[in-house]
Amino acid sequence: MSKPDYAVGQAWTYRTRPSEEASRVAIRRIDHEPEDGEVFHVSILDVKLRNHRLPGGLQPAMRHAAVSRASLDRSLLQVDGVADGDEGWRDGYGVWRQAYDNGDAGIFDLPLAEVLDYIERVVAASGESR
Questions:
Q1: Is pLDDT larger for residue 53 or for residue 24?
Q2: How many other C-beta atoms lie within 10 A of the C-beta of residue 79?
Q3: Domain of life here (predicted)?
Q4: Rounded to whole angstroms, how far apart are CA atoms 106 and 83?
């Protein structure tokens, strides 16, 4: 079986969490790293990410996540047009890039729905906003 042709600017359907069926993944950037190979920088849009730090307690998107090809292969279903032009992911990428280059960050190798669950657990463990 050949590898899917993932490309910057694509929007994809994926195996979502329950009640997030309208969610889409936007491929924002693809890097090639010596240690990790292909690193896909994606936004996960139209989600209900629990975040006690925001008014209303829900975050509608995960603007940046660095994931492996295996993560996409386990998650993505079909191309669903062109990604939106939102540039909000770039801030998260910049933070990740600096931490990655310093050896303080990595990439996710989980299915995308599990990445969202993990982020929710990390945010919840950070305690209530002050």
A1: 24
A2: 15
A3: Bacteria
A4: 24
